[in-house]
Amino acid sequence: MGQQKRQTFLHGAFILVVGSIMVKLIGAGFKIPLANLIDKEGMGYFSTAYTLYAFFVLTAKGLSVAVSKMVSESASLGRSRESDRIFYVASAILGMVGISGTAVLYFGAAGFSGAFGNPMAELCIKSISPAVLFVALLSAFRGYFQGKQNMYPTAISEVIEALGKLVVGILLALLYIKVSIVYAAAGAVLGVSIGTFAAFLLVAAFFIVHKRRSLSAVGGHIRSIRSIARELVVIAFPITIGASISSLTGVVDMVTIINRLKLIVHVSPQFIQKFGAMIDSAKFTGGIYEELANALYGLYTGYAITLFNLPLTLIVALSISVLPAISAALARRDERSAQKLIQSVLRITMMFALPCAAGLYALSAPILKMLYNDALADTLLQITAFSVVFVSFVQVTSAVLQAYGKMHIPLINMLIGCAVKIVLNFLLIGMPSVHINGAPIGTAACYLIISVLNLICIIRITGFKPSVSELLIKPLIASAGMAAVSVLVLHAVGGVGFLSGRFAVLGRIAVLPAIAAGGAVYVLLILLVGAVKESDLAMLPMGAKAAKILGRLHLLR
Questions:
Q1: How far apart are the first and last CA of the chain?
Q2: Three-state SS annotation for 27-45
Q3: In the prediction, which pLDDT does 221 show?
């Protein structure tokens, strides 16, 4: 493992995607039955704890990116001993961060849950607190291997983490549902902590094996511990703050949704018609009471956001993989290779994000009905679908800017976007005609603004000249064709009554052939419009063979 051939950024991304698909499938096997078990109320408690946990671990994620960047630069210059020292320094810093974060979450659980207007979530927050320490330690190992452009440890450890969460979380939820929904939600959250601990043990074993196989590796220059620690903090600080602001959109939702919804004293007839099944007549006086507000929050975060997160698998993998690749190219002063990587990663991002957004929008109700037997979140999911494109673009463009050492730019742009999100949440969620729908509207506007600002900065810094046709028009045409075919197949298989609410068994599973047909049509259309290049396939495992076949069919440029 010490001197293995480095993976190309798309090869590395492919490994992460395969692992992430497994993680998402396992995650669906966790979240979907969990939502059915603890219902919207329990998902509200679960989401409060998980959103807070995700915000706290961003410090670790920022340092992980810094480790990846620094290790990649040192390794590309043949400084293997310095790469190891970077890891050891980062591990010490992340260990302290993890211990502090765990303590703050555990002992501050009551204060956090009270501030968010969801005091019943205290036990869930305490249950997830140990995961902060384990994820911090995990981040050091993952950053090291990513810097070496070896994505296998990250991918495998993520699968183990998800499996631990699934097995332990569901078992504990099933055990404690007999006690109460609060205890069941806390048991599910505890599964997250145990899953991260299992993943930490595995990735530590990977590192031990790696070091035993590379004891003979040497590297000349090596910086001091103080110098490395200083650079780690300098790189990680703006990344962490930027990532925290990005995650802050979830925290903004957590703080504003329930509190703003509770201020609505008279809901519209349309609201009652749609959400009447969630309303407790004994507590309903015309407005939104606390339990109903928590249920709406759970509907949004536990249903719409869960599905929204599924398509981001490839994009996260691309951003993780492309950052060390660009950093290594710039360390070698190979500007041409860096430019080609930027062009490739932005095109691939849009080729993936646009059809995912179109599919979620077109098939929102049938997907929700199939998975949850409940389509109440269909409008929320349709609005959220737009954010798939913008969040994907922000993820990748931020990684590009970080690879160029411009850590402060994504931070500034995210501050601007987050300010827009806060204002829109405050204004829209409190409006009876908009209510919970204001949250996804604010998120879409937030990330659209960040996307535009990031792209402008990349053009100015790198001289990159984006092609509107390559980035937008070609994948948009293919995505529109895909969505149209999906809806036609849905109607053909499920019958006209499907979309009117009469979900027969055949209608509920009709979404599967609709998705399959849409996916096949998209692949065909994206090749016909000439969006895929031979150089893209060359960077994938077995891509040369695929390129040869498609070349014979005149489907490659």
A1: 36
A2: HHHHHHHHHHHHHHHHHHH
A3: 65
Q: How confident is the model at residue 457 (pLDDT cuts 50, 70, 90)?
A: very high
Measured distance CA(29)–CA(54) in Å, rounded: 20
- Name which of 185-189, 409-413, 494-498 the model is least confident about: 494-498
- If you ran DSSP here, which 8-state letter would residue 6 be given? P
Specify whether the CB–CB gap between 67 and 86 falls below 8 A: yes
Asked whether the beta carbons of 56 and 132 are under 8 A apart, the reply is yes
Distance of CA 481 to the CA centre of its chain: 26
User: Tokens representing 376?
Assistant: 């109440």
465: exposed, middle or buried (Cβ count in 10 Å: 0-12, 13-18, 19+): exposed
Residue 304 CA to residue 310 CA, distance in Å, equals 10
Give the whole-angstrom CA distance, residue 160 versus residue 145: 17
| Cβ count within 10 A of residue 55 | 18
42 and 184 in contact (C-beta within 8 Å)? yes
* Cβ atoms 247, 55 nearer than 8 A: yes
Query: What 3-state class would DSSP assign to 223?
Result: coil
Q: Which of 449, 436, 451, 460 is nearest to 381 (CA)?
A: 436
Residue 554, pLDDT score: 62
- DSSP structure class, residue 8: P
Q: Mean pLDDT over residues 481-493, rounded?
A: 90
Q: 491, 517 in Cβ contact below 8 A?
A: no
pLDDT tens digit sequence for 423-436: 999 999 989 888 99
* Residue 542: Cβ-neighbour burial (10 angstroms; 0-12, 13-18, 19+): exposed
Structure confidence at residue 362 (pLDDT): 92
* Owner of token pair 């997250």: 192
**Position 493: which residue type?**
V
Say if residues 147 and 70 touch (Cβ distance below 8 Å).
Answer: yes
Handedness of CA 200, 203, 207, 213 (dihedral sign): positive
Coil, helix or strand at residue 101: helix
What is the dihedral sign for C-alpha 38, 253, 440, 412? Answer: negative
Kindly report the length of the chain. 557
